[in-house]
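BUG: 3D viewer hangs when loading the predicted structure for this chain

Environment: internal workstation, default settings.
Expected: structure renders.
Actual: progress bar stalls at 90%.

Input used:
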Amino acid sequence: MNFTNKVVLITGASTGIGKAIAQNLMDENCRLVLLSRRTELIEEYLHKSQIASNRPLILKCDVSNKEEVVSSYKQIKEKFGKVDAAILNAGIGHYVTVKNYDSRFAEETFGTNIFGIVYWVEQLLPDFVKRKDGIIVGVSSLADNRGYSGSGFYCASKAAASIYLEGLRIELKHYGIKVITVKPGFVKTPMTDKNEFKMPLLMEPDKAAHIIIEGIKKEKKIIQFPWPMVLLTRLVGLLPGNIYEWLAERFKNKIVH
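Structure tokens produced before the viewer hung:
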């Protein structure tokens, strides 16, 4: 894929990976649409970037709210007429144990991590199918492989995202639409900053963004990184349930999640 003159939508563009992707794509001569609940943060880094041309369209959008997604897409269509690539990056995670267990955390997590993708795909599909063109990039996680202690809601939401995107990729291939799944390991973001456990191979957002953008250009089906974590999570995923649970109990909060 060549980003030149393409309309690229990025959700969760105010911080972390979304922000880094947006900043990197500013050099690709594309037309950016940046969405977030906190648009003031986007305005802040755009001001520092001193963009002279091709200023991004900035929209306030909570991806877990279908009405806001529908409204945002309508505004994008009015300005650009279409979307060429959608990087559905918005994500949220809570560390939930028996001590702070609350279904509200599940609603927020699945609302953003799953329905935040589903609602956008619902808007994009009619136009993509009609044109027989378009790229959908969904950000999942390497944590989609097991249920890690304290991260059950997050892991389950990312597992659902990965499976959903896989099925979508198979179905949409016939229509010429590319579906890419992104599975990062630990990336330094406001979300991971809250973690109190050790995060192996913690990566800076800019490096993660570069890997993701290069993967999109090559139209990879799955973009996953870093490789040591990819291999480790694959190994952990292959463990029989009783062995995994035995190890997880003894190394709680010290293994990947």
